[in-house]
């Protein structure tokens, strides 16, 4: 185990370098913390023992199989769980990458080449705007209100694409399927590209009830979907990101993908498929719900309260009392061996709007999370704002 002093220094440094810190850098540092409640990756450690015992067999089978065979096996497992069976019949097959962030990189590269201006959901995880901005893609923030009244969006004439995250990270906002369909038709009628990052889709109670990719195709929506297994499968970050795109975008996205990688390892496809067949999705949803309840109980009657977002998300969004600052609090929590994410970077266009929020990752083993939640609740009760952190 890494000493607490080393862990605190690493995350404290990442947080205090405010001008250059990113959420991912804070998450990386948090990997060395006793109570890592920062990154939203699946770390609940509940892979079926039978799957673990069969790892050599799974590897040998993947090695002996055609790439297309292992991909199709994964697709049957994942897109069945996601309620999107039409993907299996598409002429334009999913494009696979080692992470959903790399999938976003491909989209950003394409948008740069096409000169596309993007309306991007605000707040959302900061690596999405950072990747797009690194490619010189102009961004306009779009409020979560777009889900309830897409016609009222005042930047329609300024954007070429609308980029959403469903359910949204960090707030957990989980719009109705009907609302996503209304937005899709609005994009079609206005000649805009619709991009939806569905990385947290398996924590939604209703997204699997409608085949949205079939709806996009049947209604002529120019669309790109981003999918991810890294929020559900606790496979030590052996994961998959993918792009599902309509015919207007697929060829260009395929060409960029080809420049970046030949293929994702057949072993990863096989491992994800085998563990998916063992009920990992159901267990992940149960872990998320259980740990959310544990957190709420630990925080009850304390100064910090959870924000209800609608989805059974694998992260929790917490609201801080007036006078508290998320960055100062996160640095102080490190002295207690606790790592969480500050809310400010999620508000990529107006960081000050996130200063009174923190985000908690829920996908941890139940016993470890319960201990961490109790430590967090105790620390929040002891905390005094303006605890000596100097202004930059």
From TrEMBL:
The keyword Transferase applies. Keywords: Aminotransferase, Transferase. It comes from the Bacteria. This is Aminotransferase class I/II-fold pyridoxal phosphate-dependent enzyme. One of its GO terms (molecular function) is transaminase activity. Residues 114-362 form the Aminotransferase class I/classII large domain. It comes from Rugosimonospora acidiphila. InterPro entries: Aminotransferase_I/II_large (IPR004839), PyrdxlP-dep_Trfase (IPR015424), PyrdxlP-dep_Trfase_major (IPR015421), PyrdxlP-dep_Trfase_small (IPR015422). CDD domains: AAT_like. Gene3D superfamilies: Aspartate Aminotransferase, domain 1, Type I PLP-dependent aspartate aminotransferase-like (Major domain).
């Amino acid at each position: 185990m890494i000493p607490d002093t080393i862990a605190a220094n690493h995350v404290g440094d990442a947080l205090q370098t405010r001008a250059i810190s990113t959420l991912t850098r804070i998450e990386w540092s948090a990997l060395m913390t006793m109570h890592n409640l920062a990154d939203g990756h699946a770390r609940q450690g509940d892979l079926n023992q039978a799957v673990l015992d069969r790892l050599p067999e799974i590897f040998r089978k993947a090695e002996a199989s055609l790439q297309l065979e292992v991909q199709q096996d994964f697709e049957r497992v994942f897109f069945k769980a996601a309620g999107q069976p039409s993907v299996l019949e598409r002429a334009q097959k999913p494009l696979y990458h080692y992470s959903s962030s790399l999938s976003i990189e491909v989209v950003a590269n394409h948008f740069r080449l096409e000169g596309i201006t993007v309306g991007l959901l605000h707040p959302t995880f900061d690596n999405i705007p950072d990747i797009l901005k690194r490619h010189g893609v102009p961004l306009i923030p779009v409020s979560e209100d777009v889900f309830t009244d897409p016609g009222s969006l005042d930047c329609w004439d300024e954007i070429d694409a609308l980029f959403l995250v469903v359910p949204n990270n960090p707030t957990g906002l989980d719009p109705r399927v009907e609302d996503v369909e209304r937005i899709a038709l609005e994009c079609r009628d206005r000649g805009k590209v619709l991009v939806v990052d569905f990385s947290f889709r398996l924590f939604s109670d209703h997204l699997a009830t409608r085949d949205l990719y079939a709806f996009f195709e049947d209604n002529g929506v120019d669309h790109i979907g981003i999918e991810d297994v890294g929020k559900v499968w606790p496979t030590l970050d052996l994961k998959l990101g993918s792009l599902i795109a309509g015919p207007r975008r697929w060829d260009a996205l395929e060409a960029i993908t080809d420049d970046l990688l030949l293929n994702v390892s057949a072993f990863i496809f096989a491992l994800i498929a085998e563990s998916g067949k063992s009920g990992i999705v159901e267990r992940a949803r149960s872990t998320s719900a259980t740990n959310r309840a544990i957190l709420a109980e630990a925080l009850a009657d304390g100064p910090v309260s959870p924000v209800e977002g609608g989805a059974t998300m694998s992260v929790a969004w917490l609201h801080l009392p007036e006078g508290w600052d998320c960055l100062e609090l996160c640095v102080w929590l490190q002295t207690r061996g606790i790592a969480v994410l500050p809310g400010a970077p999620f508000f990529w266009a107006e960081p000050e709007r996130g200063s009174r929020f923190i985000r908690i990752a829920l996908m941890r083993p139940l016993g470890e999370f319960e201990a961490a939640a109790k430590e967090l609740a105790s620390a929040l009760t002891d905390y005094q704002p303006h605890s000596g952190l100097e202004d930059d």
